[in-house]
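On clarity, I found the account of how folds are encoded harder to follow than it need be. For illustration, here is how one protein appears when written out as sequence plus structure tokens:

:::
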Amino acid sequence: MISNRLSPTLKIRSFGAMRLENNEEISGFSAYEIIITPHKKLAIHIGAMTTPTTELRPNPTTWQSQVETNAQAKIIGGRTGIKLRYNLNSKSAISYGVFNHSGVLAHHVKFKYDKVSVAGYIESDFFFTAVEYQSKKINATITYLYNKELSASLFYNFSNQYSLLLDSEYNFLTERVIKTNIGLRKYYASKKLPIRGFFVLSYDPVFDKILQGGFMIHI
């Protein structure tokens, strides 16, 4: 990530990410934006960046973005456009933006109050909505794509080391649940090296009914 403040009211920011996988082409994305702050409560963003709706996904510069839940992954990525953010007070803010969705203009809105964020967009004849709740114990995400699908995920943090994950999706076209997942995570962080991550056990009680294990390392 590169950020440079040109004046008290003007800043430019850019960052990129790249993904390498076996037997797959290299993929990635880049973002760049001009940020204008004519007032301490108002910010205007212009460029290729996160939409107000995208902001409900984990920050791509953090390790959480590498292990998104199914519900989080349903939220749209960054697009080219313009957005305005106004801080109503220390706990609440509202954002609005117009973005290019593959040649179609979409209107995005986000409202945040304390631990709750609600965002969504209207594109042509359908709309998408996402709701997020974040607290020390709970991190929940619900997404709804008009007349197609409803997804939800929930992290319940027993402590700094353990959390329970519930993840599911309902499809309105087939009128059935098409994804379920129950997971238990054990987090760790090295005291000597800049390494963190988690071990996980997951189980799908509806479809494959197989207990699986895995781990994640972030440097």
In short: The helical segments are 70-73. The mean pLDDT is 90. The longest strand covers residues 176-189. Residues 194 and 219 are 6 Å apart (CA to CA).
